[in-house]
Amino acid sequence: MSSDGLNFLVVDDDELLRLTTKNILRSLAYTNSISEATNGAQALEILRQSSGAQAIDIVFCDLNMPEMDGMEFIRHLGESRAEVSLIIVSSHDDTLISAVRKMAAAYNVRLLGAAQKPVSRKNLESFISEHKPANAAANPRKAAGPKGTAPSFALEEILQGVAEKQFEPFYQPKVNFKTGLICGAEALARWIHTQHGVIAPYAFIEALEKSGNIDGLTFIMLEKAAAACRLLHDKGHLISVSVNLSLNSLTDPLLAEKITQVVRKAGIDPKYIILEVTESSTMTAVAASLENLARLRMHGFGLSIDDYGTGSSNIQQMTRVAFSELKIDQSFVKNCTGNKELCIVVKSSIEMAHKLKISCIAEGVETRHDWNTLREMGCDTAQGYFIARPMNLASFMDFCSEYSSEKVLTA
After folding, report:
1. Active-site residue 363, yes or no?
2. CATH 3.20.20.450 location in the chain
């Protein structure tokens, strides 16, 4: 890798714009290893040939180019799973750029940002600052890789793990936008596998739900999260803890009473436990489900409509369940800064929540830009990597003890 730590590739058929981008990079002290290509085909060949210390880290790419345009290049980039980050620079309007951003995400390309030409020094500096090394997943606090990279397990092995209670909550803090203080945490399921270490939920949630075995995991998480909530309160951290609740579980007419018993047994007032109902799921046995949710609210539990905006029945569920909070899905939150369409969706969701007199949480807050934008929109609570990654209970206890609101309130 070059002395400045990053290698760049500028892909544009306009020589002047390539030169402009290179000059901006040099003004930012990136003085070495800036390669050039006039179209996507040349860029792919450069990427294939670069390796080791010369491996490309960040690609700047135009959209309208001869032979292979930017969109085809992005497709090949995604299919090759190249470990590079991408910045789109185009003369097209925001609507098209926004559509290409979504396309890049669908191809699992690591997109740092997108801007209209001529791109400014400030924009490039901001985009580059979001780059993370490809081996960032080696961080021991981070769970096993994203969907598609986690080990594959047979249902029998997963159920054995449930029977032996090998699953643990990892806690991701939630912070109040106005005060900057920690107000809660989401308990996210992690499988502490005896051979593979920490396994992310993509490897087991779907199998448990499809086989009708999700309740076993739900109650492990609930018991451990309630016990952790009690410990946090005893240490002076009077915050709430959220636990995910599958809509598949709501068909059991006794579910609300079972949940209430577990929480009260841990010595916790139900008002400190929030049950996050995944909005993208389809509600079956509607009457029993609505009864359980109403009963849980009656007992004092918070109810959150999770992943809001990703399902087909979001408005209907908002009107028939007494939710106490709305959680905007990270696919809308990430990179909403500067994206007119995403900003409209996010802002309207916040306004709707407030008109319904419920709080609004944004998940996937990853940058200072995201934080500032959402705070200006009036969002109530933030959750995401900008604050902290999910962590085990011991690390979360330390985080709460050492945390200062200056982390998020100070620019």
Report:
1. yes
2. 139-409
